Amino acid sequence: xxxxxxxxxxxxxxxxxxxxxxxxxxxxxxxxxxxxxxxxxxxxxxxxxxxxxxxxxxxxxxxxxxxxxxxxxxxxxxxxxxxxxxxxxxxxxxxxxxxxxxxxxxxxxxxxxxxxxxxxxxxxxxxxxxxxxxxxxxxxxxxxxxxxxxxxxxxxxxxxxxxxxxxxxxxxxxx
Length: 175
Fold this sequence. Notes:
Elements: E1 15-16, E2 23-24, H1 26-43, E3 52-56, H2 61-77, E4 82-89, H3 97-110, E5 114-118, H4 119-123, H5 127-134, H6 139-158, E6 162-164, H7 169-174
Parallel strand pairs: 3-4, 3-6, 4-5
Antiparallel strand pairs: 1-2
């Protein structure tokens, strides 16, 4: 027998939230998710009207959801934010190609300007070139540090003071 949505909207639940245990239908989950993010933005005073915000866009699900939700809430609640996508191409053969296409699709879908910066452009080398010199040991650590620095540099180039990054609970538990 299907489980009913906790909100008593009359629809069947499609998921159970791990943190609260609430069984929700798709529509009620979206509503709760959006409300929680709006509350966090307002309560935390994360942005001011007129702020330019770069959404760190990898092309993965977390950054895609972040771009979508910030655009949706910015329009719904009139935050007055200037949103843009900022993506970093590490220069790893076969690694970023497909995800950069997703980032470009997000640009088109969400009608946000997009800036793609490469390690080659910023540092004069690609991650593939670094690995060829130093080997594979600790290359993920180096790449993560370089990527964060690249986001900071990209934000400075764009005149952006806020960088929004998308993370899920598993990401947070791992760091």
